[in-house]
Design brief:
alpha/beta; 398 residues; 2 domains; Purple Acid Phosphatase, chain A, domain 2; elongated
């Protein structure tokens, strides 16, 4: 039943935004609504989206991959077109209203003084009213297309003032949120691992949401382990591991060579230095800043395994930084946010709205650094200025 939750929510959202789009057209854009083709398209969009969700469900029920993928992509496309129109139609409606007002004023003036109505202004307002929804629709289609671009595997340096000499140049392959299923496949994962192998990472850390199809999890872990990072491969839980069935996830990990760290840590020797690799649990629910949960999780894992000479915490959610900094972890690795899936110049566009959600990139609090990955994959295929990534984080002295 869990696998059908996204289908149920999808059809609800498609119908809701479809009705909203129709309402905005009828009320705010009456000139367009009078056109038969526009009316048919507006009504047909939610109908088409709902049919595609049913196609998606049919593929899921009968485990027909290509049918599920086709239905899911077309359903997402319908939803994003509705969403784009929902954002732009009020603007177009305002421009229509402004044009009618200026036309009325200009007509009254012309009747009194024989002035000619400014046709250039009328043309500009009509063009702008069309351009706004056109731009948002193009953006929606581009975002869906960009979600299937190549994953960005690159080296990023993290600087520490007092970095131990043994860790100078240590390379951490940070893999988060592959969400293996429809949109991201084992073949995509293989490509990412091949790209990462060229950097020769010393350790691989996986911060949750590995597979939305648990039938792919065992193969995914086996592929990741083949990278053979000298200091090992370690993983922590994400919320999707709970959504898909955490008991089954644990059984699969137990049969693999990858330790799943849940409220626990392991000391990894690096020369004479003790490197702590720890994993926080995930609060499962979508509450944004559950500080009490992470306080309990981190305190418990440190009671079982104290900090090392350098300590790394894997936490699927970046909000663990708040308490991890109090307990003086050196580095927190996280994912979950997907960077808001819309970015500009390496930062989420929502950064100014939610600065305390640590949406994408590097953050610092006290001595603790956080890197939030935008994720290798996604459960919702949309990326605009925020590419999928799997960074190699290299520790360096400042």
């Amino acid at each position: 039943m869990r696998s059908f939750y996204p289908l149920i929510f999808s059809i609800i959202f498609i119908l809701f935004f479809g009705l909203l789009e129709i309402l905005l057209l009828r009320v705010l854009n009456k000139v367009w609504w009078k056109k038969r083709l526009v009316r048919y398209a507006a009504i047909g969009l939610p109908v088409f989206g709902s049919l595609m969700v049913l196609l998606w469900a049919l593929g899921e029920y009968n485990t027909i991959g290509w049918l599920s993928f086709t239905g899911a992509i077309l359903a997402v496309t319908a939803f994003m077109l509705e969403f784009a129109l929902m954002l732009s139609l009020p603007v177009s409606g305002t421009l229509h209203l402004f044009r009618h007002i200026t036309d009325f004023i200009a007509k009254r003036k012309s009747e009194r003084s024989n002035e000619v109505v400014d046709q250039k202004r009328r043309l500009f307002l009509k063009t702008a009213a069309v351009a706004v929804p056109a731009i948002t629709v193009v953006g929606a289609v581009s975002g869906i297309s960009n979600s299937f671009h190549e994953v960005n595997v690159y080296r990023r340096k993290l600087f520490y003032k007092d970095l131990p000499e043994e860790l100078e140049g240590l390379k951490i392959f940070h893999l988060s949120d592959p969400h293996l299923h429809h949109y991201v496949t084992l073949s995509d994962l293989e490509d990412v691992l091949s790209a990462a192998e060229k950097f020769r990472p010393d350790i691989t850390l996986v911060t949750g949401d590995i597979a939305d199809d648990l039938n792919l999890l065992a193969d995914a872990l086996n592929m990741i382990e083949q990278l053979k990072s000298p200091l090992g491969t370690f993983a922590s839980l994400g919320n999707h591991e709970y959504f898909r069935g955490v008991k089954r996830v644990r059984r699969i990990f137990d049969k693999s060579q990858t330790p799943l760290l849940v409220d626990e840590g392991i000391i990894v020797p690096v020369g004479n230095l003790k490197l702590l690799i720890a994993g926080a649990d995930d609060p499962v629910r979508m509450r944004v800043r559950n500080v009490d949960f992470f306080r309990t999780s981190i305190d418990y894992l440190l009671s079982r395994q104290p900090l090392g000479d350098f300590s790394i915490l894997m936490s699927h959610r970046p909000y663990a930084l708040d308490y991890a900094s109090e307990r003086e972890f050196d580095l927190v690795l996280a994912g979950h946010t997907h960077g808001g899936q819309i970015g500009f110049m390496g930062r989420s566009v929502f950064e100014s709205v939610w600065p305390d959600r640590y949406l994408w990139g590097e953050y610092s609090m006290g001595k603790t650094k956080l890197y939030t990955s935008s994720g290798m994959g996604h459960w919702f295929p949309f990326r605009l200025g925020c590419p999928c990534e799997a960074p190699i984080l290299e520790l360096r002295r400042a």
